[in-house]
Automatic annotation (TrEMBL), chain A:
Residues 103-407 form the Dehydrogenase E1 component domain. The branched-chain alpha-keto dehydrogenase complex catalyzes the overall conversion of alpha-keto acids to acyl-CoA and CO(2). It contains multiple copies of three enzymatic components: branched-chain alpha-keto acid decarboxylase (E1), lipoamide acyltransferase (E2) and lipoamide dehydrogenase (E3). One of its GO terms (cellular component) is mitochondrial matrix. Its cofactor is thiamine diphosphate. GO terms for biological process: branched-chain amino acid catabolic process. GO terms for molecular function: branched-chain 2-oxo acid dehydrogenase activity; metal ion binding. Keywords: Metal-binding, Mitochondrion, Oxidoreductase, Potassium, Thiamine pyrophosphate, Transit peptide. It comes from Trichoderma guizhouense. It catalyses: N(6)-[(R)-lipoyl]-L-lysyl-[protein] + 3-methyl-2-oxobutanoate + H(+) = N(6)-[(R)-S(8)-2-methylpropanoyldihydrolipoyl]-L-lysyl-[protein] + CO2. It is found in: Mitochondrion matrix. This is 2-oxoisovalerate dehydrogenase subunit alpha. Gene3D superfamilies: 3.40.50.970.
From TrEMBL, chain B:
The keyword Oxidoreductase applies. Keywords: Oxidoreductase. It catalyses: N(6)-[(R)-lipoyl]-L-lysyl-[protein] + 3-methyl-2-oxobutanoate + H(+) = N(6)-[(R)-S(8)-2-methylpropanoyldihydrolipoyl]-L-lysyl-[protein] + CO2. The lineage of its organism: Eukaryota, Fungi, Dikarya, Ascomycota, Pezizomycotina. This is 3-methyl-2-oxobutanoate dehydrogenase (2-methylpropanoyl-transferring). GO terms for biological process: branched-chain amino acid catabolic process; generation of precursor metabolites and energy; response to nutrient. Residues 76-252 form the Transketolase-like pyrimidine-binding domain. It is an enzyme of class 1 (oxidoreductase). It comes from Trichoderma semiorbis.
């Protein structure tokens, strides 16, 4: 819709429908006032256009300028030094629970370092770290209900971890081995887990957004049909770059019009690969757009896990009110890391800028400072936690790396619910090829070897 | 005003033209035929053998269970048959919902009439004008266990949703892998094809763009009876389905349709007329043109022609087509959309790739399809395969 060409095609489309209908002989003899007509009470200061209710008339010719609005504020609970700035705040969870969240954040940051290096050593094809954004994924996850379906973009490993994704599950996906939920079909970091109600990550940006709106609508219908079922929301993550895609607009607009219980969570980390926000959008971030769609919106400090938790808790509550409605959270962060292992961000930003951010404001150190001030964490505990997490990850790493790949025959499965005659024939063709040229293919590392291409009898 | 306009459009789109010569109306010159034409006459939908004009004929269907055939039949046009299938699906399964642009008031082609009143505004509803949103929304509902039936108002406007269809709906089951989720509950309906005056953006038939993408079933019915059974099968299918409705048939094609629910098989072609000398493979509206051309060719050339309706265009029924080619040795593939990289290319390639059918061929496989151009308003009658072109291709194939 934002594309002018698109808008034009709409105009043409409607116009052409009317034009096609013109040769009609019917005369409009008794005009019917439709919902689209303009109606106004005498002497009213307002006009009821169907597209803008309660808009008052004005005689001053004035365009609104974005600069005349102050930027939306950023909600925070704890500042960079770990000091509580909201006097009304008191933690709603035990010290043990906070420590668990902290360890989840640590786990992700340690796994990121190990896997980034592993990719550099050629042991992994690709990786994406989430350094600087751990509070958003872990914090939101910790206050969503475990039965709330979640749609991720690709930098939410913290949510997987917090929900209970295991080291073996992470590593199996990263190494595309036979235990990978995704059956070895997708690039590393495209995790998914049905028992944890997390939909599998796919690479196209923003496609997950209208899907989350639809999923939320499904939850709403299911609850209408079975009022005794548990109220649930859908949650969906995306970056500020993805918000430039048409699917973002589609998702928010359709969620608003259908009153879908969905929480949109934007990680505004300042960069879409190399593109800084100034080249991505003008206007007040992503949050200002939510208001335009008629959606309740908040901007938060994404480096403050307490702010993330408080805002998400409240957003979830709101999303379930009035029969369901969408809520938008814009979490401000800074992508400390490169975009992915295929990216060297020092080609487009200064190393010193990144170092500054790391030192000045980091979600993990911020929570650590808060915990130390509270007296539930110290250097010894930090060292112990880091060591044990590192060991656990490395152990999972080497186990997963040694596992066999999934069976070759499985590459033909899950295209359709069952194998089509064409696919069965193609399995046979591939099998014949592999058997004719055994020197040309390494099949030993795949579970079951060539035999996995035997066509199942009753499929 | 808009609704009125739309109603006029529907009438204009699909009324069968009377065969008796009417006074020349310049405003409608692009939908009349030359006075001396013998082949390119308007299709007489009231007599074509492709439609079951009586209940007795409808009840001869061998794919529908006898229980259903013992029940009543009712005269329906294509939009009524679609409406009937949607109504049944909504009634029998509370996970089914129907939505799209202008769907709530009944749809611009009347396919969703009274569904919102009957099944409630939560399950039958309007969406904003956002094809990518509609598709994404449908996929999201499907992966959470629902059976959404999404409508794209014209196939010409499906392209903003291409990312959702190609990268998400088609691949969902594949990338979810062992998680077992899929977009299989989803069915996307869209009117397609030419109507005489739809020009570039109300005429397209983009099935070949979908048949290149594994993961979906692409279906196009030829008649009301077929549409009801195939649409119910598509909605109940656990694979995502693209259901393309030739919009010229919405009002033109009328036949007796069993009232009870029934399914017709997906990915199964149907031999709708047996013959010995030539096989014609087609689907959708061109089948009517094929039938008219066959009648004339059989009279003129003393041959008999077999006509096959693919029905599901992908994954398509090679077995039925190959068996027919084994019998006749001569094949035409007829479709309305452009010839380049179209369905005809796939069918022809498969026939020459199969050693048995390749050896049996007596003539090159011929593709009779739209030229490799766009649908130009005033030139449509020269663009779309008509009776004369199909007749001529039969003749050339026989005389090769």
């Amino acid at each position: 819709m934002l594309n002018p060409l698109k808008a034009n095609s709409r105009v043409l489309r409607r116009a052409s429908i009317r034009r096609l209908a013109q040769p009609s002989v019917s005369v409009i003899s008794n005009p019917i006032r439709s919902a689209g007509s303009l109606s106004q009470r005498p002497n009213s200061g307002f006009v009821s256009f169907p597209g803008a209710l309660k808009s008052s008339f004005t005689s001053s010719l004035k365009f609104e300028t974005p600069e005349s609005y102050t930027a939306l504020p950023t909600y925070r609970v704890v500042d960079q030094n770990g000091q509580v700035v909201d006097p009304s705040f008191s933690p709603d969870i035990s010290d043990e629970a906070v420590i668990k969240l902290y360890k989840d954040m640590l786990y992700i940051s340690i796994m990121d370092l190990i896997m980034f290096d592993a990719q550099r050593q050629g042991r992994l094809s690709f990786y994406m770290v989430s350094a600087g954004e751990e509070a958003v994924s872990v914090g939101t996850s910790s206050v969503l209900d475990k039965d709330d379906p979640v749609f991720c973009q690709y930098r939410e490993q913290g949510l997987f971890k917090e929900r209970g994704f295991t080291t073996e599950q992470f590593m199996s996906q990263l190494f595309a081995n036979r235990n990978d939920n995704g059956r070895g079909r997708n690039m590393p970091i495209h995790y998914g887990c049905k028992p944890l109600n997390i939909h599998t990550v796919s690479s196209p940006l923003a496609t997950q957004l209208p899907q989350a709106s639809g999923a939320a609508y499904a939850l709403k219908l299911q609850r209408l049909q079975d009022p005794s079922s548990k109220p649930r929301v859908a949650a969906v993550f995306f970056g500020e770059g993805a918000a430039s895609e048409g699917d973002f607009h589609a998702a928010l607009n359709i969620a608003a019009t259908r009153s879908c219980p969905v929480v949109f969570i934007c990680r505004n980390n300042g960069f879409a690969i190399s593109t800084p926000t100034l080249d991505q959008y003008r206007g007040d971030g992503i949050a200002s757009r939510g208001i335009g769609y008629g959606i309740d919106t908040i901007r938060i400090d994404g480096n403050d896990i307490w702010a993330v938790r408080e805002a998400t808790k409240k957003a979830r509550e709101m999303a379930l009110q009035d029969g369901g409605k969408p809520v938008l959270i814009e979490a401000m962060t800074y992508r400390v890391s490169h975009h992915s292992t295929s990216d060297d961000s020092f080609a487009y930003r200064a190393r010193v800028e990144v170092e500054d951010w790391k030192r000045r404001d980091n979600p993990i150190t911020r929570l650590r400072k808060w915990m130390e001030a509270k007296g539930c964490w110290d250097e010894a505990k930090e060292k112990e936690a880091r060591d044990s997490l590192r060991k656990e990850i490395l152990k999972g790493f080497s186990e997963a790396e040694r596992e066999k790949k999934p069976p070759i025959g499985s590459m033909f499965e899950d295209v359709y619910e069952s194998l089509t005659p064409d696919l069965k024939e193609q399995m046979g063709q591939l099998k014949e090829l592999l058997e004719t040229y055994p020197e040309e293919y390494d099949v030993a590392s795949y579970e079951g070897g060539v035999a996995s291409l035997d066509v199942p009898k009753d499929n | 005003m808009k609704r009125q306009a739309v109603r006029h459009l529907k009438g204009a789109l699909a009324h069968p033209r009377a065969r008796s010569a009417a006074p020349l109306n310049l405003a409608r010159c692009y939908s009349t035929h030359p006075p001396n034409a013998k082949l390119n006459l308007p299709i007489d939908y009231s007599t074509t053998p492709l439609l079951a004009h009586t209940s007795a004929i409808a009840k001869q269907n061998t794919e529908i269970s006898s229980d259903v055939l013992h029940g009543a039949t009712k005269k329906m046009n294509l939009f009524q048959a679609i409406n009937d299938a949607l109504n049944i699906a909504l009634t029998e399964d509370e996970t089914v919902s129907v939505f799209g642009e202008d769907v709530a008031f009944g749809g611009v082609f009347r396919c969703t009439m009274k569904l919102a009143e009957t099944h409630g505004a939560d399950r039958v509803f309007n969406t904003p004008l956002t094809e990518q949103g509609i598709l994404g929304f449908a996929i999201g509902m499907a992966v959470e266990g629902m059976r959404p039936v999404a409508e794209i108002q014209f196939a010409d406007y499906v392209f903003p949703a291409f990312d959702q269809i190609v990268n998400e709906a088609a691949k969902k089951r594949y990338y979810e892998g062992a998680n077992g989720r899929s977009a299989g509950g989803m069915t996307v309906r869209m009117p397609c094809g030419t109507v005489g005056h739809g020009a570039l953006y109300h005429s397209q038939s983009p099935e070949a763009l979908f048949t290149h993408v594994p993961g979906m079933r692409v279906i196009m019915p030829r008649s009301p009876l077929q549409a009801k059974g195939l649409l119910l099968a598509a909605i109940r299918s656990n694979d995502p389905c693209i259901f393309m409705e030739p919009k010229i048939l919405y009002r033109a094609a009328v036949e007796e349709v069993p009232v009870a629910p029934y399914e017709l098989p997906l990915s199964k072609a149907e031999v709708i007329k047996e013959g010995k000398n030539v096989t014609i493979v087609s689907y959708g509206q061109p089948l009517y043109n094929c039938m008219a051309a066959i009648k004339q060719a059989e009279e003129d050339l003393g041959i008999s022609v077999e006509l096959i309706d693919l029905r599901t265009i992908y994954p398509w029924d090679k077995k039925t087509v190959f068996e027919s080619v084994q019998k006749t040795g001569r094949v035409l593939v007829v479709h309305e959309s452009m010839v380049n990289a179209g369905v005809g290319a796939e069918v022809a390639a498969a026939i020459q790739e199969n050693a048995d059918t390749f050896n049996r061929l007596e003539a090159p496989v011929s593709r009779v399809a739209g030229w490799s151009i766009h649908n130009a308003l005033i030139f449509e009658k020269f663009h779309v395969p008509d009776v004369a072109r199909i007749y001529d291709s039969i003749k050339k194939t026989v005389q090769y």
